[in-house]
Write a structure and sequence with these properties.
Peroxisomal Thiolase, Chain A, domain 1; ACP_syn_III_C; single chain; alpha/beta; four-stranded mixed beta sheet; five-stranded mixed beta sheet; 2 domains
Length: about 325
């Protein structure tokens, strides 16, 4: 059986927001000069009343236009990831299926994949299709933290707030030889799972009522560890896939990664021995898109003609503080 990622479509909410927006709120911050938090020129924010389901519906429009409504409605499997679920007790899969008119046999919400969720979803989709659980899977990703968590009045003053951007993407995976998924590597590093924390002043659990707005609990020590892990993990999983498919990293036609900051992007392409023009980069336009980064960058590469029929694209990312990483290689067969 050959399973293919045959298309992806995306959505960016609202008009671009410039770095000047954050400059007007900026306060003294010990981490402001850290490479992790050097602001992109632009990013997008989800609207105040816009849900993750709304974002996915907008992202799916491109697939429906190119492949017809039935390609979405008749999908057997729906796999979703939402950075900030609209309701904390359950994911958005059920609501997304209803909005898109789907009645899938499988609805799975992935949370642990983080910025590498698209790769994890590709693996789950491929495995389910290969095991006979369906012929078509839809992967829906919604990144909606920038305009919500990071734009809170006391949080947008911090250096970390100016980096994230919002966006959504939907991928279509089918039993087909059009754009075969060549190999996937996923690794969990459970020892790092507790290193990403929520910081609230005064301290409280995220669900408790009280003053203070939550943000990511960054410190210089944590940042040093995350930089070291990310620099190592993304090339490691990419090299593992390259080894199994018999392609040297420097011979890849395109590398598509998550995009936390400029330093990671530079270090990853150098580790893969790739020139800048073969590493898709939308950081200045979109900021850190978290899990939506890979599919949005992939969509742009396809639309711009950077990814051509017959090319091998490597998608690779790490998540959170380094508790998960994944890479997937696809031989692109073109949109058609």
């Amino acid at each position: 059986m050959t399973v293919s990622l045959i298309d992806v479509s995306t959505y960016l909410p609202g008009k671009p927001i410039s770095a000047d927006y954050y400059a007007q709120f900026a306060e003294s911050d010990d981490l402001r000069d850290n490479v992790m938090f050097r602001a992109p020129k632009f990013r997008h924010h989800v609207a105040e009343d816009e849900t993750a389901i709304d974002m996915v519906e907008s992202a799916a429009a491109g697939l429906i236009e190119r492949h017809g409504q039935d390609a979405v409605v008749d999908a057997d499997i729906l796999i979703t990831h939402t950075q900030m679920p609209d309701m904390p007790f359950y994911g958005g899969g059920g609501g997304m299926a209803h909005r898109l008119g789907m009645k899938p046999n499988w609805v799975l919400d992935l949370h642990n994949g983080g910025c590498a969720a698209f790769v994890l979803a590709l693996k789950v989709a491929r495995n389910l299709i290969e095991s006979g659980e369906g012929r078509t899977a839809l992967i829906a990703i919604a990144q909606n933290a920038a305009g919500q968590a990071f734009d809170q009045p006391t949080i947008r003053r911090k250096a970390q707030a100016s980096v994230p951007g919002d966006g959504a993407a939907v991928g279509l995976v089918t039993l087909s030889d059009q754009s075969p998924i060549l190999d996937i590597e996923c690794r969990t590093y459970g020892e790092f799972a507790g290193d990403m924390t929520l910081a609230v002043d005064p301290p409280r659990k995220w669900w408790q009522a009280g003053p203070g707005e939550g943000c990511i609990g960054f410190t210089e020590s944590k940042i040093t560890k995350v930089l070291a892990r990310g620099n190592r993990q993304v090339p490691e999983v990419s090299y593992a896939v390259c080894d199994r498919i018999g392609v040297k990293p420097r011979d890849l036609d395109l590398l598509v990664t998550n995009q936390p900051n400029r330093a990671f992007l530079r270090n990853w392409r150098e580790a893969m021995e790739l020139p800048k023009e073969r590493h898709r980069d939308t950081f200045e336009d979109c900021g850190n898109l978290f899990a939506a980064g890979i599919p949005i960058n992939l969509d742009r590469a396809i639309t711009d003609g950077q990814l051509k029929k017959g090319d091998v694209v490597m998608m690779s990312a790490f998540a959170h503080a380094g508790d998960f990483a994944g890479a997937a290689a696809v031989r692109w067969g073109g949109r058609g």
